[in-house]
Amino acid sequence: MLNATILTWLTFLPALGAVVVLLLPRRGRIPQVFTLALTLLLFIMALHLPVHFDYTQQGFQYELNVPWIASPAVHYHVGVDGLSMWLVVLVSFLAPLGVLISWRTIEDRTNEFYSLFLLQQTAMYGVFIALDLILYYAFWELSIVPLALLIGMYGRTNGRTAGIKFFLYAFISSALFLVGIIWLYSRTGTFDFVQLQPEIQRLSTGPHAAGVWLASLAFLAAFAVKAPVFPLHGWLKDGISEAPTAVAMILAGKLGLYSLLRWHISLFPVQATHVAPLMISLAVISILYGALLALVQTDLKRVAAYATLSAVGFAVLGIYAFTPASMAGGAYQILNESISGGALFMLLGILYERYGTFELAYFGGIASKMPKLAVLFVITALSLIGLPGLNNFAGEFLILSGSFQSHPALTSVATLGVIFSAAYMLRVVQSVFYGAPSSHVAAIVRDDLSWRERAALWPPIVLMICMGVASAIWLHAINLSVPAMTPMTTASHNISYATMGETR
Amino acid sequence: MTEVSPVLRILPEVLLTLTGVLVMLLEPVIDIKASRKPLGFLAISGTLAAIAATGYQLQLPPGTAFFGSVQSDAFSAFFHFVICGIVLVTLLVSLDYFEGHTTYVGEYYALILFGAVGMMLMTSSVELLMIFISLEISSISTYILAGYRKRSATSPEASIKYFLLGSFATSFFLYGIALCFGATGSTNLFDIARGIASGASPLLLTVAFGMMLIGLGFKVSLAPFHVWTPDVYEGAPAPVVGLMSTAPKAAAFAVLLRICYGAYGTMTHLWMPLIWILAVLSMTIGNLGALTQRNVKRMLAYSSIAHAGYLLVAFTSLAALGIASAGFYTAAYAAMNVGAFAVLGYLSGFDEKRTNLIDYAGIARRHPVAAAALSVFLLSLIGIPFTAGFFGKFYVFTGALNSGNAWLAVLGLLNSGVAAFYYLRLLAQMYMLPAEPTLEPNTMRARPGFILGVAILVFAVFALGIFPNRTLSLARDAGATFTSHPNPVPQPQAEAIPQQ
């Protein structure tokens, strides 16, 4: 009973909470406490998923499928596989951290902040669990609104522009996505993920092949904007550098990357194989372009923004290299990027809270004043660089070794990204934490991490280590689902669907 | 089959007329200084009775009355519900809007009711002359309502503009009727359909259709007949704009549906390209026009032009689904647009203090609940999922794609992307800017009538966006009246239409 409804509870409890937060009195820390309690409850509920997950069974679990709209036939069909299960847990994990880190930074219109924050959590859950295209699209679009409002309302200096920019990028690309969805329905008569797969394969060879192509491109464009992939990353820099910490942590990456795996590669295997070279090239460009721009930024938040672009590029490379190892690595990297990137944004947020700036030039020699912060920052930086033993190494290694089999040349170029990432991260670490204290830092006396900040930072740090040394825990479920999405049986461009659903 | 009394076929209209007359009679009896609110409550109860009567009509077998001039069926019932709903909320919202500002409050309620009678008759008429008469009934009351803020310069200007251009447009409609009569020898829609089937002059019919389309195009403000819209919406009182941007449009679209699918059902090749062009023009001109507006009411006026274009897209899908999606869109659009204007009316007050975009800066801090309600309506106008606007658009463009008009769907959805920008700009203004210190906060308290009206609309927006089944099945029944009914077919089935 609980297994069938747990996903629904997870999805709609935050929305309910969002309404409750608005009605709470506007004094003290009542909205914070309420939201923290709710998100912790959701996290515990989400842990139910991996505990009771059947690790021997492929396909979707915790499924619920009830009719929603009679005509067109839209179903409330939810369920998770090995990939989306961990993403649901990830969303639940990051939410309480986001609350903790916003505890003091959001002092104005707090109820609205936490309400939108919870609404955004509903939308994210919905995206990861929906198995009906319309349901999925509904949550996909819904996720734009709270994120754009959060950026706009709580932005640093020019949040309004950044929020509108983010909204328009995401919304306009989804407009064509919707046309694609409706077109598919008009030709197949279903929105259901499971039923669509064979239908699309059938269409791909018939007279509607061109239409399927256009639909697949519309899907791809919408996901590539959200991920983001070069050259559709226009919203990212402003979006992230304006967004409050809790929003920057969740803004990029997982929604788009997950959607690429579930709704592009799995639905359109033929078309995906044909655009794979393009996507891999764009991924490599994203990696290098992001890394090079991160090297020259003077604003810490922008360094992190471009580092995100670079990290997303790695995941896209793994996903479209279409070897089981690289795809599993790409999926794993979605988790790693969110956790390490999230930790980085929290650390930057803490620095900003202390010193009121993100300008690299104002910082220097903080390690001597705040040793605890420095240690955690260095661990996070090493994780992002891909130090062996930490989580990103596991993911990037899988990606690079996997994609080297199918695309040796481009993968070799992409490897440069790892070196660049070491360069920009160490540059940040060096100039923020070491050397003589800058005049700005010396003038302001600040405490080291509070218990609240430590509570927010330690869980991801511990996870970075766990996910680095015991990656099998996570890869077990991922390996169950993700390599099955591989559209090709061999690394050559021999398109065969006979073995779809098998792992090599 | 038992004979249905003709009066029952127009029962909602009769009830509204009686209520309107009663309001007019009571108005001079009430003390001159006394509040006119009881009259408002009377009007509201009359509207509720009309809704109940429409529900009763839905139980009746569909059929005509008064020598085949009106027909009550699922189609008319659906639009009756929509129009009555709009009128009900408008009455609730304006209970306090006019209080103390003008001496003609009683007439206001009566005019709204009489206008509603006209609009509802439009949706049930199946006789062109009857349509014309009801169109005039509804128009005349909206002309007067547009000028209700008499002391300001813009409101009478709006009224006169609306009146002059409106009567000009209705004369086009009248020409169309005359030509149609010339071609087929009848003004009855069923007879026209039969005349077309038996080979009436296509040229005359084409010109006649074009004329009628111009007349109706003006009423629903389709580009290029939209020029009056921004000026009139800017000048008229906000609750009235909410009414006149939705109810008469719903009625005129119902007429257009009856003409297109009922009378001209076999000549789709004739009207299809015309509708296509008008749809694209309206969407594009409406949205591009709205982009440059600084005045919120003008912006929403252009947005209503764009929405008329979206609605027209539904016409091209040529099936019962097309009518159903047009009907659903009308209901969704009514809920969000009436709501947006109601909140604007509340925020800017009777003297329209806040008309420009800039006046809404940071208003969410001073009026958090009103701003939240307005955001819901704006997000629905954008077409965000789980609101009415999403499914409205979804059904419209599904219809277009099903009938092979993929480009129309692409254009429409790209247009809605552009539209997102200007709605979002208002939203951003309310939430993302510090409050404008120069503007005094609105001292008007939110009254129960206003709160109830807006609450109904917010509920409707979410209900249509999350559980659209009920409304959709009503709309589908409405669409089915054209396919299950024998109107284009020469011999009518006795069960479907009881003969007079």
Account of the protein in words:
The complex is a heterodimer of chains A (504) and B (500). Chain A is mainly alpha-helical and 504 residues long. Chain A has two domains: 1-187 and 236-241; 268-504, no CATH class. Chain A has 20 helices and two strands. In chain A, a hairpin with a 4-residue loop joins strand 1 (61-69) and strand 2 (74-80). Chain A starts with a helix and ends in a 23-residue tail after the last helix. Residues 489-504 of chain A have low confidence and may be disordered. Chain B has one domain (8-484). The termini of chain B are close together.
The portion of residues assigned to helices of chain A is over 70%
Mean pLDDT of chain B: 86
Written as H for each helix and E for each strand, in order along the chain, the element string of chain B is HHHEEHHHHHHHHHHHHHHHHHH
Computed over alpha carbons, the radius of gyration of chain B is 22 Å
Assembly category: heterodimer
What is the typical, i.e. mean, pLDDT of chain A?
Answer: 88
| Main sheet summary of chain A | 2 strands, antiparallel
Number of helices of chain A: 20
Beta content of chain A: under 5%
How much strand content do the residues of chain B show? Answer: under 5%
Number of helices, where a helix is a run of at least 4 consecutive DSSP H or I residues of chain B? 21
Number of distinct beta strands of chain A: 2
H/E series of chain A: HHEEHHHHHHHHHHHHHHHHHH
Strand order of the largest sheet of chain A: 1-2
By DSSP, the count of extended strands of chain B is: 2
Low-confidence stretches of chain A: 489-504
